[in-house]
Design brief:
The complex is a heterotrimer of chains A (501), B (939) and C (109). With 501 residues, chain A is mainly alpha-helical. Chain A contains 20 helices and two strands. The longest helix of chain A is centred in the middle third of the chain and has 32 residues. Chain A is globular. Chain B is mostly helical. Helices cover 73% and strands 1% of the residues of chain B. Chain B contains 39 helices and four strands. The N and C termini of chain C lie far apart (46 Å). Chain C has 109 residues and is an all-alpha fold. In chain C, helix 1 runs antiparallel to helix 2. The longest helix of chain C has 32 residues. Classes of the chains: A mainly alpha (501), B mainly alpha (939), C mainly alpha (109). Chains in contact: A-B, A-C, B-C. At the A-C interface, helix 5, helix 6 and helix 9 of A face helix 2 and helix 3 of C.
Chain lengths: 501, 939, 109
């Protein structure tokens, strides 16, 4: 048995605790700790990734109790992928936060950051439904702290809505989980996968209710219309660097929908059947439309980025709702891409906001922008809109071709949405970076050239390029992963249900 | 040289240019020129084989899963376009070197130009339509950058956006079309698709695919009604216009039509859509060109018109017409590129491009005039220039084509030719002939050879092809047309087709008519100016503006920052979804025997319901509402106790106390009343939503409580293993600290984070001027921090040690009896909390011995170590062991490592709560200071 | 008994929802507390209720299902932490903005 599986949770927790104890030390020490933790997390994630690639799914029985009585962590290709994605983004964003001095603008940034990573990794690794709730709460409350980092009137007020709405979501999550336990008497996801097919006819109605409530919870996390209203205010008012990290938080909703939709409530389950697909597809199409319209109609760059995030989740959920290996592989590819693209866009927006004081889409004073930032915006916009040469285009092609067949509607919505986003990004970019208002005072040169911040941003663009160039191996890997999701026997066996460990 | 490498060269050049700019604009131009030349020579190296009818291929598997592979091919058609793109590219680079002014960022220019060149080359070399699509959208992007090159010009920005919107949008349609095509053919490789004519044309999806692909081609090639973007792209620097709009970008659409000709052409749909569009575009654009004054505008519309001509020829779907199309592509590229550059020279020298302000340049700029004359005559189709040859052949084909009536096509084609004669001659007459004027914005004279060399070379070609077509062009036409039609082509191009040829008379009519038109020009112009017509730009901008405005209204309307609405929507969706899911399935009511209701229970129930109702009714009086909430919480605890959940009761009780005290402190800083704001309608809406949600929850509860689980609950194991396995008799506690200790680990971390957040937020409040000011106001207003009654103070100080002992006791017994680290931590916290209230914050703070951060951090650390300790024994995280210990004076009890974990819980909880309270107390302190600032504070 | 509990949970939920939909931060917070009462009782109750069956191992006794109780404990603690955070946020929002409305205005959203 490999103890490494718990490390993505245990390591950040440990470092966070040390950071709390060492809060009086200099910022440099804290940065070193946090950075080291992120590098370590990345290393472990890589190791787990290669393990999951070569070996079958592996379980980690916490407290050495047999499943389903204790809590089990599961390492399979999907969870390994998500943990790796998280660790990569975490590393890039922490470098940016340090490079742009964000971590000085409030207290406990790095401790909260590590707790945030702990929560996210825990949510990806757990194979216990209630434990998923616990780690949702961990990552949520950490995200509240990060979202409020630095304070500010609008930020705190937007944060209140974010917290209140998510508390409603958490309540719903508990209702759903209690229903699941009350009907099935178990919480282990593999155990549920084994038991639900033999569920008596008379209990199906209640388990369907639980399934829908769970899906709604994930839809809230995934910002699926009409449960997305929390996102624009939150992301637009959050510190840019935090919004960039949040690019992976919405993916948790997508991940959970995919996990439950293939393992616990697979399409061939008598009780729920096509429930997930039927709910997700229309909602996803509307989400994509709302996001694209928002990109065109946004009045500031952060808000534009927020709607781009919504649109990307729309695309991801469109792909997920296919619930075939092909569409799932496309969904995973687009999740990888949109996480990078979304983060890049928020970081660019943060650069602009810190340069001009606000991100309103209007001409700035002369000398506001060096060519580099404009170029980075162009790259981030190309990525978010899904144009070549970056991975968004590949992702769109994957989704479109995976949705071939009776998909006229899906194709139309996706292509029209892309068109609207091209218009929106072009409009925003030309207004902000090309136009300059001679009437305004010349914007003074930035105090620092912020090499680390730019390096982080360029790194994200480079990752998108890599995702394109190495699209072959990546898609091949994802195809195998998707295939595994639709044949969960290995995942279930790894739990060694009802056996002594 | 491998095709993949050739295709990559321009992109490499782009990078080099962006670097080479350090060594100056000249270096940049040289690099760009050399790279283009290298790519050209690479292409020409393959030429002999291709001219023999071979097709050169290189294949790189990129994403086989998707069918997107980096497969390139070079056949006759590709050869023709590659030569145009790279050959004219070299000339443009030379020309731009002398055209751009010193203040233009040349590095960007050449970078963008090379990017664009690479995208174009990629299109014509692609052997995979997905790859082609990538390069296709890349041309849209790079042309966007080129057209918007002069960022300071609003026309530049608008023109760039318009071009991107139209061509990029068309590209998206083409994506769909190509995907359909590929799925019909079963492959995205052109070499496969091109063999599937019958399958494709038989498929029901043929027409949709055709229309979608043509949308892409027509937008790119500025065909009616998408022609309007091209003239506005003229805001770009002239070298860009010369490149994009003569030889490259606008020809991409033609290329795709030619490329797909073997599988798409030959059907009535193809003929009617393509030929008609081409014809209409040709005539309409030629007419507009006649009435434009800006030299570049004339050339732009003439380009649209000639593109229409070629489109029409491809639309005929006959081999002969395809040959002419290919031939005219060559000719148009030569004379149009030359004309754009010459127009640029005039602009450069005279500082105007308006035909109204020019004239008489013949004597001032003889070289420019000579070159322009030859190029325009070729454009007009005057022998012995190459434009004449292809125009003759075009008229020949048109005359032989039946469209509506046998003669309509010929007639309209002649009209088109006539107009093209007219505007070509006008360009010469009004631009160069006539008297020398005295009022040029800038005294014009011929530029140095750097500027006129490139057009001169092209004009040389115009002449050479015109005089000796068989020698200079036929071989290329044969190869290209052969590739388009998929047959062997042996063209014979003559100047003289004999008197019998209809084309001769048609072009005579065209020339005569053209001259006549020019004679009547003033009157025609007046008529044109007097007739109002929609200005494309205004229409387009209006449309975009409307669309954007609509998008903004929708977006801001949907996301107005209202919280209640998002709540209502969410709850409605949740309840409706759950109900739908339930009703669309089968359900059997449960059969569990229910518990009986004792009078005591009934009383408690009535009280709790009343309290809730009161809370709803009087929620505006916040203190009262809070107290009612607390009562409900306490009664919930009572219920837990009654229903065999002592641990819950204890926890609920302590949590309730702390929460209520917390909120009491909070109320010091918040208004005490909630104003009446919401309308009756809104209250009814909220009430309805609340009621429905409540009913749903109640029904769900009842359905679940009255049935047994479908499968044996896993908790049987927990009960059985609590003592033997986890060494505790309190099953709930063993679950908390052992079976599901991992949940608890997460849970205490949630609490710890909460404390950190509260601390950090307090800091920001205390550092925010407005907030502190408000704080002081509140302080003066409220009675926060008043002196505490002596008795209470003394009492609480005696209470403290007592409570601490109780906490320790609860902690130790927790594993076997209700209690445990969490409750203990809360009790201790309460002890201090009571101190705060009893003795005031300052007093307690002064005596605060240890930093709460340390307690909190230590708690997390201890819990972590308790978990990780198992690793030492090769056991998983949080595996616990236990043994029996006797510790005088206590009775023998077993000490489980879980207890260490529980200690972590205890510390974490205590630290978290105390940190939160300390933070709050600092706010109170700030308020209190404010009160002390007052001259006479209330005593 | 079951019916009474079901009604209570329904009432707690309804009260919570109604208060959550108010326009000022304090009632919203109270509403959230009611929602957490509701869901805690729900988790507990749907584990089926019994009197005199505390899950503490002893001779020849019957036990109620301890797992839902453990889950409720976790839920209580978490919602306590959340409540503490949102309370301080309400204070911060009020002190910084000068009012305690929950809806965001033009620049805020």
């Amino acid at each position: 048995m490999s103890h490494w599986i718990i490390v993505p949770v245990a390591l950040p927790a440990l470092i966070a605790a040390i950071l709390i104890l060492a809060r009086r030390t200099t910022i440099t020490v804290q940065r070193a700790l946090s950075l080291a933790a992120c590098i370590g997390l990345f290393g472990v994630a890589l190791a787990l990734f290669s393990a999951a690639t070569t070996a079958p799914p592996e379980a980690y029985h916490l407290g050495n109790w047999p499943a389903p009585f204790g809590i089990v962590l599961m390492l399979d290709r999907l969870s390994a992928l998500m943990v790796l994605l998280t660790s990569v983004l975490a590393l890039v964003v922490v470098v940016y936060a340090i490079g742009a001095d964000w971590d000085r603008k409030g207290r406990h940034f790095h401790a909260l950051y590590q707790f945030q990573l702990m929560g996210i990794c825990g949510a990806f690794l757990t194979a216990d439904a209630f434990n998923l709730f616990v780690f949702f709460e961990v990552l949520l409350i950490a995200s509240y702290g990060l979202m409020l980092h630095g304070g500010g009137r609008d930020r705190v007020r937007a944060g209140f809505q974010y917290v209140a709405f998510n508390l409603i979501g958490s309540t719903l999550f508990l209702f759903a989980l209690a229903t699941v336990y009350s009907v099935t008497g178990t919480l282990n996801m593999a155990d549920l996968a084994v038991k639900l097919p033999t569920l008596p006819e008379g209990d199906m109605g209640l388990i369907r209710v639980a399934a829908v409530m769970l899906l709604m919870v994930f839809a809230i996390k995934g910002a699926l219309v009409p449960l997305h209203f929390w996102l624009p205010g939150t992301y637009a008012n959050a510190p840019g660097v935090v919004a960039a990290l949040f690019a992976v938080m919405t993916k948790i909703g997508a991940y959970a929908s995919l996990r439950f939709g293939t393992l616990v409530f697979p399409p061939d389950l008598a009780a729920t059947g096509g429930l997930f697909a039927d709910v997700l597809l229309p909602a996803a199409l509307v989400t994509l439309a709302v996001g694209a319209i928002g990109v065109l109609g946004a009045s500031s760059l952060p808000r534009l980025a927020a709607f781009a995030a919504i649109a990307s989740m729309g695309t991801v959920f469109v792909a997920i709702s296919g619930f075939t290996p092909a569409t799932t592989a496309a969904a995973l590819y687009y999740m990888l891409h949109s996480t990078l693209a979304g983060a890049a866009l928020f970081l660019v927006a943060d650069m602009v906001v810190r340069r001009l004081g606000d991100g309103a889409l209007k001409a700035a004073g002369p000398g506001a922008f060096a060519g580099l930032l404009a170029a980075l915006y162009l790259a981030a916009a190309i990525g978010s809109a899904g144009l070549p040469p970056l991975s968004g285009f590949i992702g769109k092609l994957l989704v479109l071709s995976a949705w071939s067949g009776a998909a006229a509607l899906v194709w139309t919505v996706m292509l029209v949405a892309t068109f609207l986003m091209i218009l929106g990004f072009a409009r925003a970019g030309t207004r902000l970076f090309w136009k300059s208002d001679p009437a305004l005072p010349t914007v003074p040169a930035p105090a620092s050239s912020e090499p680390f911040a730019y390096a982080a941003l360029i790194g994200l663009i480079g990752l998108m390029a890599a995702l394109t160039v190495f699209g072959g191996p990546v898609t091949a890997w994802l195809d195998a992963t998707a295939a595994g999701l639709y044949d969960p026997s290995a995942y279930i066996d790894a739990n060694r249900l009802y056996e002594e460990p | 040289m491998s095709l993949a490498l050739i295709a990559a060269l321009p992109f490499l050049g782009a990078i080099l240019c962006s670097l080479a700019i350090r060594w100056g604009r000249a270096a940049c131009a040289v690099v760009a020129g050399l790279v283009s030349a290298a790519a050209l020579s690479g292409i020409l190296a393959h030429a002999p084989g291709v001219l023999d009818g071979q097709t050169v291929r290189t294949q790189i598997n990129w994403m086989p899963a998707l069918g997107l592979n980096a497969n390139f091919m070079l056949d006759g058609l590709g050869l023709l376009f590659a030569i145009l793109i790279l050959g004219i590219g070299v000339l443009i680079i030379l020309y731009a070197r002398f055209y751009l002014s010193a203040k233009d960022p040349a590095g960007q220019f050449y970078t963008y130009l090379m990017l664009f060149q690479g995208a174009m080359l990629g299109i014509v070399l692609s052997d995979n339509i997905l790859l082609l699509l990538i390069f296709w959208e890349l041309t849209s992007l790079s042309s966007f950058l080129l057209i918007g090159y002069w960022k300071h010009l609003p026309e530049g920005r608008q023109g760039a956006r318009m071009a991107l919107a139209v061509t990029g949008g068309g590209g998206l349609a083409m994506i769909a079309g190509m995907l359909i095509l590929g799925q019909i053919a079963g492959s995205y490789d052109l070499s496969v698709i091109l063999t599937q004519k019958d399958a494709i044309q038989a498929s029901p999806l043929y027409l949709p695919a055709l229309i979608l692909i043509l949308l892409g081609a027509f937008t790119k090639s500025a065909q009616f009604p998408f022609h309007f973007w091209l003239p506005h792209a003229m805001a770009a620097p002239t070298p860009v216009s010369a490149y994009l709009h003569s030889a490259t970008m606008v020809k991409a659409g033609l290329f795709v039509m030619a490329r797909m000709w073997p599988v798409l052409a030959g059907t009535p749909e193809w003929f009617w859509i393509v030929a008609t569009t081409g014809l209409v575009t040709m005539v309409m654009a030629a007419k507009i060109a006649l009435f434009k004054d800006d030299l570049k505008a004339v050339l732009a519309f003439s380009t649209v018109s000639h593109l229409g001509l070629i489109t029409m020829l491809l639309g005929f779907g006959t081999k002969a017409a395809a040959i002419v199309a290919v031939f005219h592509i060559i000719n148009h590229a030569t004379f149009k590129a030359a004309l754009f550059m010459l127009a640029g020279i005039v602009d450069h020298e005279a500082h105007t491009r308006s035909l109204r302000r020019l004239g008489g340049l013949r004597t001032l700029m003889p070289v420019t005039f000579a070159l322009t004359a030859l190029a325009s005559l070729s454009m007009a189709g005057i022998p012995p220039l190459n434009g004449f040859l292809s125009k003759e052949m075009m008229l020949q084909e048109a005359a032989a084509t039946v469209w509506l009536t046998p003669w309509a096509m010929g007639l309209l084609a002649t009209a088109g030719a006539l107009l093209s004669v007219a505007y070509s001659f006008r360009l010469l007459a009004h631009g160069f002939l006539g008297p020398v004027r005295s009022d040029y914005p800038h005294a014009p004279h011929d530029p140095g050879p750097g500027l006129w060399l490139a057009p001169a070379l092209l004009v040389g070609l115009v002449l050479a092809i015109g005089v000796a077509p068989m020698l200079t062009a036929a071989w290329l036409v044969n190869a290209a047309a052969g590739a388009v039609t998929g047959t062997v082509v042996e063209t014979h191009i003559y100047l003289w087709h004999g008197l019998g040829a209809a084309a001769l008379w048609m072009s005579l009519a065209a020339v005569g008519g053209g001259l006549a038109t020019l004679g009547l020009y003033p009157r025609l112009r007046k008529a044109w100016d007097d007739t109002p017509r929609p200005e494309a730009k205004i229409v387009f901008d209006g449309a975009v503006m409307a669309l954007t405005g609509l998008a903004r209204r929708i977006t801001d309307g949907l996301h107005d920052g209202g919280f209640a609405r998002m709540g209502v929507v969410a709850l409605a969706v949740i309840v409706a979804g759950s109900a739908a899911a339930f009703l669309t399935s089968s359900h059997a009511p449960g059969s569990r025997t229910m518990l009986t209701v004792t009078p005591a229970v009934a009383v408690v129930w009535i009280v709790i319901m009343t309290a809730m109702f009161a809370a709803l009714r009087f929620h505006r009086d916040r203190l009262f509402a809070l107290i009612l909430t607390g009562i409900v919480g306490l009664l919930v605890a009572v219920g837990f106790a009654y229903l065999s959940a002592p641990d819950l009761a204890l926890t609920q009780l302590t949590v309730e106390v702390v929460t209520v005290l917390l909120m009491l402190i909070a109320l010091n800083f918040l208004p005490k009343q909630t104003p009446v704001e919401s309308s009756m309608a809104r209250r009814l809406r909220d009430g309805a939503v609340a009621a429905i949600t409540g009913v749903g929850a109640a029904l769900l509860t009842f359905a679940l409580m009255t049935r047994d689980a479908a499968f044996a609950p896993i908790s049987a194991f927990h009960l059985a293993q609590s003592k033997p396995g986890a060494g505790g008799t309190n099953a709930v506690n063993t679950i908390i600290v052992d079976f599901r200790g991992y949940d608890t680990f997460g849970e205490i971390i949630v609490l710890g984070i909460a404390a950190l957040v509260i601390f950090a937020l307090t800091e920001t409040i205390l550092h925010n001027r407005d907030a502190v000011a408000a704080l002081k106001r509140e302080g003066r207003a409220s009675r926060a921090g008043d002196r505490q009654p002596m008795m209470l103070a003394v009492a609480t100080r005696f209470l403290l040690p007592l409570t601490l002992i109780v906490g320790a006791y609860l902690f130790l017994r927790g594993h076997n009896l209700p209690g445990g680290g969490f409750v203990a931590g809360l009790v201790v916290a309460i002890a201090f909390l009571v101190q705060f209230i009893g003795s005031g914050f300052a007093w307690s703070q002064a005596r605060q011995r240890l930093d709460h951060h340390l307690v909190l951090g230590a708690g997390v650390l201890v819990a972590w170590v308790a978990g990780a300790g198992a690793w030492a024994f090769g056991l998983p995280f949080l595996t616990s062991g236990y043994d029996y210990v006797t510790l005088w004076p206590l009775e023998t009890f077993e000490l489980a490592t879980a207890a260490i974990f529980d200690l972590g819980v205890f510390l974490c909880v205590a630290g978290a709560v105390l940190l939160a309270l300390a933070s709050l107390s600092r706010l109170t302190q700030a308020a209190r200071d404010a009160r002390d600032d007052l001259p006479k504070g209330p005593v | 008994m079951e019916a009474l509990i079901a009604i209570t949970i329904g009432a707690l939920t309804a009260t919570g929802v109604y208060l959550v939909l108010r326009q000022r931060s304090f009632p919203v917070i109270l509403g959230l507390s009611f929602l957490s009462y509701a869901v805690n009782v729900f988790i507990f109750a749907t584990g089926r209720v019994q009197t005199d069956a505390i899950p503490i191992i002893g001779e020849g006794r019957i036990y109620t299902d301890p797992l839902p109780q453990a889950l409720v404990l976790t839920a209580i603690v978490i919602s306590f932490g959340m409540t503490a955070v949102i309370v301080i946020m309400a204070i911060g929002g009020y002190l910084k903005a000068g009012h305690d409305r929950v809806d965001l205005d033009e620049d805020g959203r």
